[in-house]
Amino acid sequence: MPGRGTRRALIAIAVAAASLAAGGCAGDDQSPVEGGTAGASGAGGVLTWALADRPAGLDPLLATSRSDQLVTRQVHEPLVEDLAPPFGAARRVPGLAASSGPDAGFTIWRFGLRQGVRFQDGTPFNAGAVLANAERWRTTTAGRELLPDLFAADAPRPDLVRFFLDRPDPDFPDRLADPRLGIVSPRALQPHSGTGARMAREVRSGSGPFELRESDAGGALVARNLTWWGTERGLGPALDQVEFRVSTGADGRLALLEAGDVQVAEALGPAEARDARRDPLLAVLRGGGNSLGLERSVRGIDSASEIPSLSGVWVARVGRG
């Protein structure tokens, strides 16, 4: 790939804030680059992101590292999220749960489901799919650690699920926004019922804006899901692909960023962050306990979100000398 000084067309993205844990805030380095023009959704482009470690797999429930969660979050959507169109428009769109509400005691939570959604393998997203995931959360160690008070779930209608808790929890929807609780197609689970299930298939297992195309020791490649429900609502994604490239040393990730081989470098150390700030073509954001280095042509990454969602990606072309 040519160096940054020779490239005229660079990718600029705007990322919708995920409804995840907040941490830190961006400084002046987050200001947008002048001269960009928005492209249409699906206009194309590839973003390359340097990870600190190799994702162990795509199973959201077993995604313990930041790299695991960042990649699986693009493929598997949590039941609860709050999506924004590109460039931070005021209009917000709820995710798979179109509505929610508790009983008076906050021990029963009802979630109205978005209709017309399908997983990438063609399986309908409905109450049955949510119940299979809830059963998995309830009957596995990893699931019980995340939702210790969940003891049952049912579906009065195909578009409505209820979660029953051992104790009141006013923050239960926020817990369901955790990327580790991404909804998986029941056909990808073994057994399909979800009871004590493992994820037996990673390919086409989610409902999210990207689908897995490649995964090996060097990283992962996700490509735009042509049937994602959010596209017709103006949520993107505009990028054709996102390449996650593993580089285990912070100095190596900075070198890739300086050479223009990646546009975003994850988890820079204090020394690397200082060096990046000295480069007028680079910016540094702090959020979620990490320093994120990026080319200044990359806009809109929400540094207050520990695990960014790329569902609101938008492509612009920016000229540079």
List the helices and strands and how they pair.
Blueprint: E1 10-12, E2 37-38, E3 46-51, H1 66-75, E4 82-83, E5 93-94, E6 97-102, E7 108-113, H2 127-139, H3 141-146, E8 150-157, E9 160-165, H4 172-176, E10 189-190, E11 198-199, E12 210-216, E13 219-224, E14 241-246, H5 250-259, E15 264-268, H6 270-278, E16 282-287, E17 290-295, E18 316-318
Parallel strand pairs: 3-14, 3-15
Antiparallel strand pairs: 1-18, 2-18, 4-5, 6-7, 7-9, 8-9, 10-11, 12-13, 13-14, 15-17, 16-17
Any overview of this molecule?
- With 321 residues, the chain is an alpha+beta fold.
- It folds into 2 domains: 4-90 and 205-318, Periplasmic binding protein-like II (D-Maltodextrin-Binding Protein, domain 2); 93-199, Periplasmic binding protein-like II (D-Maltodextrin-Binding Protein, domain 2), CATH 3.40.190.10.
- It has helices at residues 66-75, 127-139, 141-146, 172-176, 250-259, 270-278, and strands at 10-12, 37-38, 46-51, 82-83, 93-94, 97-102, 108-113, 150-157, 160-165, 189-190, 198-199, 210-216, 219-224, 241-246, 264-268, 282-287, 290-295, 316-318.
- The strands form 5 sheets. A 7-stranded mixed beta sheet has the order 12-13-14-3-15-17-16, with helices on both faces. The protein has a 4-stranded antiparallel beta sheet with strand order 6-7-9-8, covered by helices on one side. The protein has a 3-stranded antiparallel beta sheet with strand order 1-18-2, with no helix packed on it.
- A hairpin with a 2-residue loop joins β8 and β9.
